[in-house]
Records
---
Amino acid sequence: MAAETIPYGEVAQQAPAVKEVHIVWLTAGLGCDGDTVSITAAEQPSIEDVLLGAIPGLPKVHLHNPVLAPQVGEEFMDFFYQAERGELDPFVFVVEGSIPNEEIKQEGYWAAQGTDPRTGQPIRTTEWIDRLAPKAWAVVAAGTCATYGGIHAMAGNPTGCMGLADYLGWDFRSRAGIPVVNVPGCPVQPDNFMETALYLLYQAAGVSPMIPLDDQLRPTWLFGKTVHEGCDRAGYYEQGDFATEYGSPKCIVRLGCWGPVVNCNVTKRGWMRGVGGCPNVGGVCIGCTMPGFPDKFMPFMEEPPGAAVSSGAVGFYGRTIRALRGITNTTVNKEPKWRHPGSHLTTGYRPESVERG
């Protein structure tokens, strides 16, 4: 069942069109920079096409990402200070990595980027979010760590970390009236992120309406369907034909795949150039795009709760349908008997019937 679209058009107005946009990308959350690395593989569109102005109708785009930037040290940090002072207006603020709870840290800090020239102390990740999010034209959480907390936020973690919307509040709105835009994935599927960025850039240019998001703030056109609905193996499920070991081409629900209940388009889109997508290539879906990941999907590679009941029910139906289809297949998999050599025509053709007509 697709999540409902948030009706926030009444409270958010379309921002005036702009001709130049900066993307200020904070990777100092609790993460691995995997989302940044992932998007370098994007092709629909690619980072290069966006930054080089190869896509018609887009504003000029400047990217400030510490992994991809040519600048280092204070030269790079200056872009963050400019954004704070309002000198990069407008800018899209992208956050990668989960947000630690600095309020529970008795000494030191969990995560930071740069040094405050006024105090000589590290600038905590949460401080950057406090400084930049309210001034941003749009705020985007890249990857599951930033969207919902991810691996770092699982039970027993010492940081109390969370997703960006948890930190800012789910009713947060950017300067353009846009909620936090969540693009989950561990890591984020490259084209999913760049397509979302493209939509926002077109919105900034005044040629796209408000970005449609579901109740978990994910773009609806990307996360409105389940993994199962686009899976190459879905036909086996419908016929109650389940794999019992890895390497089988059949449905892998009983081996631990959560695809039927996970909102993600990777089986449709693939990973790179349409190739891949976890179940399509034999890997079970572990729900990495979902707010409950990872805790609610563990232990991995074991039959999910309820799968035995649902697969058992569909198994009875599927075996019956499979048998009936087998009969039909046997019938239609043979040529009609009148297709043969020899002196006798057995097609049923009667010349006299043609003459009467």
---
Amino acid sequence: MPKRSNYISWDECFMRMAHVIAERSKDPSTQGGAVIVNLSKIIVGIGYNGFPRGLNDDEFPWERQGDFLDTKYAYVVHAEENAIYNANARTDDCIIYTTLFPCNECAKTLIQNGIKQVVYESDKYHDEDIWKASRRMLDAAGIAYRQYSSEWAKK
């Protein structure tokens, strides 16, 4: 009997996992997910966007607009950062799969932790300054990035 031929690619596998972990996010507007894998395709970290451990998310705002301290942006940890914080091994030379292109703050974290490639799905904020800064830093650091569109997420 021949082996099965319709198995999913590694990209599809890890991007699906990023989407699944994103479903843990309580954010009412954006659910981000990230999966970090080493060169042997072993998962070393996962994360989703949410408040730091130990904070009661009922005591902090989820708003997108208003004074900075009254919005989620002052408090939320992004999926990419949480994947680094939750890593169970070094992330040097690893690949991160993420549902959204990383912002400038996440790019700094990825650079500092040795990530060598970013595979992202959505780039909906491409033309905003934060994401322009991110691409500039990733380029300067020699970190490759490419877009991957999950077949599963299209359904």
---
Amino acid sequence: MTHLVGFGAALPETVVTNAALASEFQVPEEWILSVSGIRERRRAGEDETPATLAEAASRKALAAAVLLPSQLGAIIVGSGSSSRQFPGISADLQRRLEAPGIPAFDIPLASSGSLVALALAVDLAPRYGPVLVAGAEVMSRIIDRPPRTKESAILFGDGAGACIVSPGPGAIEVTDIRFACDGALGDDLSLEPGAPLVMNGRTVILQASRKLPAAVRDVLGRAGLHPADVDLFVFHQANLVLLRQVAKTLAVDESRLFVNVDRYGNTSAASLLIALSEAAEQGLVSAGKRVVLGAFGAGFSWGAALLTVRG
């Protein structure tokens, strides 16, 4: 048994509005909003990296959990925009937190990386102790690679989220968590070193709209539950159109969806933990509630988790 304790998020100060992008690409602001549901997104400054953002979010999570970095048993970071091939963000984060000697590694999966990191942390925490899980992305530097396109530029933003997975019982119990991968369509969402992002939007949306609801039903079915039994759904914030489609497929009201993609854009592997952090801060992850997490991303990889909040 494991539980979540302590959440944190870090967003760059610079805001990129739809007006700025509409002017750059000579498209109507209304078009950007209609195809994505995004009004603005954040952009990292020159001195900000995935590691600095991960550190800021992680320190907030540690403070909320009343833990010192020296009390951690492991560090796992999900990201698709690491600043270098290796070592990954986790090595920089471990150094910044001054927590040497413990396992620290990356999950290089855009969008779904933090969910996969959570799943691994659930297995590691009983053996190693509290595991710091972070998702950190600076997608803007990838999107800036030529040819810079409106389809990508309007979607992505920068940021980081973090939480602690601790062993034993606790208020926010991880009842179950599952993920799956299928590399058959992996080339439709991929990134070569130094190259621009490859994203077949039609394929990504089609696969996500099928596999994400299936993953949710699977994790709920294993607990004898149905989507109607869930109080809050916190998904990877890809775009509002996809979130609404998933809610429709699951036959749940949109009011049970947590949404912040309108303010931050798609922050890839960081988005799930940023959203969960904000949901907890707003009191939405409270006693007696069932919360489902879900993500779909590079690989293709996807999955879902069931959280049960105890009184």
---
Amino acid sequence: MTQCKCHTIHASHEHLSWSNAHPPVLTVAPGDVVEFGEMDAVCGQLSRNSTAADIANLDFTRVNPVVGPVHVDGAEPGDALKVTLLGFEPSGWGWTGIIPGFGLLADEFPEPGLNIWHYDKGLGSPTLFSSVAKIPLRPFCGIVGVAQAAPGEFSTVPPYHTGGNMDTRDLTVGVELYLPVEVPGALFCLGDPHAAQGDGEVCGTAIESPMGASVKLELVKGEKLRFPRFVTHEPVTRHIDSRGYEATMGIGPDLMTASRDAVRGMIDRLMALHHLSAADAYMLCSVAGDLRVSEIVDVPNFVVSFYMPRQIFE
């Protein structure tokens, strides 16, 4: 019986595009574990002492790097790469920012904003949003993906059918993610660690937090996936719903417009209930609330709802 091995890859092996021409920096066997060193979504441009002015000065050619690629022996087009998230090494701090020109309501929030978070590295205690809210921690990597068969280089900012910047908060420890393999070796990459996020990441950032991560890489031969899929082995709730939710809605013929209306409604609600500024309410929506499609069949209008757990304010 072959014993799986553990490998280490350092954050210095990062790049800012997807391409099947990037040479692998590590080759592993199916079943091996790869430990990624501390990754950072902005290549170290922000620190615990940063201010909103640093957000305005971000160099976007150094945003959303991915670490890798990792070549998995035996991976061939038509297979699925099974990625199991095993654990994280948190740094104890993170940030949430309003980046001009980015986010669901970018046109309404043209000024940069920044909240610095400090949290327990053991992840046992929630992190505080001023004196208003306590946010439970549930780390995951926003970027998990493999190379496409198409030639050329592709930005790491959008997601693709092969994964990438999916920003799906349920892809956390213990979850099994399956990615469609399109090139020999799969060429797997990881990046964009988050300490917490709401569904939708509406302001464009989560609790962005430098951290390391470990994953197990396995193969499912001949699955022929068209898009990623994943399996969870426990409830996906963060157990912060015991006090119910405040929920706002957007209704109309366009899902994007309805989403914006639902988030606007929650920003107004948080400002009224908790005396937050609009910018702080927007950032809190991004890290703690969930944007959901409630109804998409009763044409011509659709319903999008935004859920904010009431428990975080107690």
